[in-house]
Amino acid sequence: MAIIAPSLLAADFLHLQREVEMVNNSAADWLHLDVMDGLFVPNISFGPMIIEFVKKVTTKTCDVHLMIEEPSRYFEQFKKAGADHISIHIETCPRLHQDIQQIKAMGLKAGVAINPHNPAGFLSDIIADVDIVLVMSVNPGFGGQKFIPNTLNKIKEIKKLIVEKGSHAVINIDGGVTLENAAEIVAAGADALVAGSTVFNAADPLEAIRLLKQA
Ligand code: DX5
Ligand code: ZN
Question: Nearest-CA neighbor of 7 among 182, 174, 206, 190?
Fold first, then answer.
């Protein structure tokens, strides 16, 4: 069964506690937290302050996805706020290896995120060092976009690379995951699925999470 990570980005922020409690009561495993700075991506979302509040209520693993320039400036703050995982983008980290080691040295799980236009091969010399590969199946910045079909090939290539390099990384897919495509994403080799709109816009979010989990 896949790991399910509802993305809070699609939640009702006026009723954040209720939304976090819904996830607590669900079959979800992680809570995905999208941090955006308006530079690396065109959108601005939330930062450590909101995560600190969420952490007070959530019983799930906090899977933080940093879509920000020079993310290492904020590792300590996100750890303090309650991050369990921190994923950073290969596109904005010239010292990616060092940054990954820093996240792990803080006792957190470290993820590398990769945008849709970048090939699986870019990960070959870092994949053995990471706990998570966060494969963007949309261009990062917004929820509710359409899944990019080429991601399915990329998942298979990344899976091969993981075996080749003796990596223990889990493959986490982010963007456009729906009840319709979840099964083929898992069949391609995904271990974890992030889902924002599919969960929070559903008439029955608990049921949506349950169905994703069974994909
Ligand atoms: C996009 C974010 C995603 C987003 C996914 O930049 O990284 O985590 O919340 O939203 P959906 O599932 O609606 O595509
Ligand atoms: Zn994300």
Answer: 174
